[in-house]
Amino acid sequence: MKALYEKVTIDEQHSMLVKHIRLNAFGALWHYHPEYELTYIMQSNGKRFVGDHVTNFDAGDLVLIGPNLPHFWRNDDDRLNEPPAEAIVVQFPASLDENMLGSFPESEPVRHLLHRSRYGLCFSAKMVARIANRLTQLPKQEGMNQVLELLSILNELTTDREAMLLASDSYQLTASEAETERMKRVLEFVLKHFREEIRIEQIASVAGMAPAAFCRYFRKRTNKSFVEYLNELRISHARKLLTHADLSVGQVGLECGFNNISHFHRQFKQQTGTTPLRYQATYRDKQAPLLTAMAELSQ
């Protein structure tokens, strides 16, 4: 996918950019920028892309993106009659780590957190429940109070032992490699047709390549085969349907492009470590603390 360079403008009177975004739907393209980015999804759902990692996101999603790591949040095409997409986005320059934190030995845990974020970091529901109110209040603060609060939030995030790295440790897609119209065509086609059967010959034709050459090309740029990537996307969509739609497991499998229910079960357990039914029950248990915290905030 073609990663576009985003110019983040931070004026001379500020050391970071804090935005409260409210849109009909998230419309940012696949992009990168040299600044760190902390994004908290207050309201909305869909799919999140960070490097070579793709998964579903819901309200409460909190991710720290390192410099020049391609990313974007995308609402699903079938999103109808849903409330606006809402998020808090904080962008701050790499110089915060290099020029400021480097002078303080006590900041080592935060610097380590920022170093890990070069692959993208997703934080746990428990952590989000603890700091959700602070994140929503951050755009309302000004001056040094806002800077100190961001540092305090980052310091709190260092204690999250369940924080998950997103992009694979071998991911090395540079900006120049990202500027390929061919990969953009391929991934846009997959996002549109992943519910259907996609043959290697078919997707290779979209890329304008022979099947064998396409397989090598795709693996080189994503560190996985096309079939692996397609199955990850399908299982990601299956996880969303299992927790948001009133469908049977068999119907979810068919809706996600799996014509064989046994194959769907194998792929789901291989990627999640559990069965579709158990995943559904576990997800709801994990969401309970976050839903309670958000309900309290709305009162």
> How are the strands ordered across the major sheet?
2-9-4-7-10-11
Give a short account of the largest sheet: 6 strands, antiparallel
Rg, Cα atoms, Å: 20 Å
Instruction: Output the number of helix runs.
Output: 12
Distance between the termini: 42 Å
Anisotropy-based shape: globular
Structural class: alpha+beta
How many strand segments? 11
Strand content: 15-25%
Level of helix content? 40-55%
Low-confidence stretches: 175-179
Mean pLDDT: 85
Summarize the helix and strand pattern as letters.
EEEEEEEEEHHEHHEHHHHHHHH
Provide structural commentary.
With 299 residues, the chain is α+β, with helices and mostly antiparallel strands. The protein is 47% helix and 16% strand. The protein is built from 12 helices and 11 strands. The strands form 3 sheets. Strands 2-9-4-7-10-11 form a 6-stranded antiparallel beta sheet, covered by helices on one side. Strand 5 and strand 6 (53-57) form a beta hairpin.
Task: Write the topology of this structure.
Blueprint: E1 4-5, E2 17-23, E3 31-32, E4 36-43, E5 46-50, E6 53-57, E7 62-65, E8 71-74, E9 85-92, H1 95-100, H2 108-116, E10 121-122, H3 125-137, H4 143-157, E11 164-165, H5 175-178, H6 181-193, H7 200-207, H8 211-222, H9 226-244, H10 249-255, H11 261-272, H12 276-298
Parallel strand pairs: 1-3
Antiparallel strand pairs: 2-9, 4-7, 4-9, 5-6, 5-8, 7-10, 10-11
